[in-house]
Amino acid sequence: MSGTSIEEFYREDFGRILASMIRSCGGDFDLAEEALQDAFAAALVQWPREGTPASPRAWILSVARNKAIDKIRRESRFDARRGELAFIAELESQDPAIEDADQIVPDERLRLIFTCCHPALADEAKVALSLRTLCGLTTEEIARAFLIPAPTMAQRLVRAKRKIAAAKIPYQVPGDEILEERLEAATAVVYLVFNEGYSASFGASVMRTDLCVEAIRLGRLLFELMPARAEAQGLLAMMLLHDARRPARARVDGEIILLEEQDRSRWDRAQIAEGNSLAAAAMRSLPAGPYVLQAAIAAEHARATVAADTDWKRIAVLYAMLLAVRPSPVVELNRAVAVAMADGPEAGLADRGDRSARRSRRLSLPMGGARRSAAPARPAGRSRIRVRKGARTRRQRARAPLSQKTPRRGRRLS
User: Fold this and answer.
1) CA-to-CA distance for 230 and 335, rounded, in angstroms?
2) How far apart are CA 25 and CA 28, in angstroms?
3) If 0-12 CB within 10 Å is exposed, 13-18 middle and 19+ buried, where does residue 343 land?
4) DSSP state, residue 264
5) Confidence of residue 302 (pLDDT cuts 50, 70, 90)
6) Which terminus of the chain faces fewer neighbouring Cβ atoms within 10 Å, N or C?
């Protein structure tokens, strides 16, 4: 296996092996990660010279466990960590072929996902830790993705790991009583990564393809590990469908191309077919959640071979359903735009006016002769990652996925 192949193997399998190592190390992220890095460094030296082992994953896992044992001994913490060392030794005695039967326990990765996305962590920490541990991105790569110095990102990761230890965040899959709530947090983190890639909030590029790719990888992992959860399926479908338009979304100079002006022959039809299939399957699981409905909306746009064939009536219905489960001013406006595209501007304005009036009556209360209104809700899925002040440009306002952005006069979709 060449150095390039080892790098690809690292990127694909780092999260899987790290999840198992963290369990082996009693939840110690730093020990597990350092041992695993040492194991991959050894592979870069040995594999090109001696050949690739029959079971690369088992080889890496075995070497990483040995590296962890060596580190514990070197640091003279043997007595303090005797139980942990015994656990590692016990796992090490297992048949490597069993570990590598392409079945490093899936629940290990679920544990890692839910630990990285725990509500006790800040959004920035969740995103950084997920990209580092689940996707195998280096600290420098994550720092470049968010245009901050590598030492700053390193400190962010350190603080996140310390928070996990200090708060005693359990390395486990949540129980059924809180699983739905925690799954929502995990899908929100994946969406934060995708939305930042699809609609870069800073930097010169319209899109960050690397972040979109990593978000889709995380989405696939969530769906692979939780196939019965329709929202995980819907999230993956939505990301695939939006990302399929990427080749046609921007001109050479970086200017955004609106949806109706895009060359649809450049859309990734294979990715659209996969997204449509996932979206249709997810819609059969009722009641449909917000990611499932957003995927269905994206599927309607993707089915139209030309803009004039878009089924705006169906899209209006889907937006009404989305408004019922995840109300926001943005969704409300997009519903009105869809009605206008289907039945004319007057119908859209009437729909918007009726809904605004109902919302005003519902949220406003008399207070000393004045009216007190609730603050508008944050659009679902909107990234709260802090960026440098003034970094967003006017050109970048048109970049968010369809169901999350406000079209101008019904024509600002990309």
Assistant:
1) 23
2) 5
3) middle
4) G
5) very high
6) N
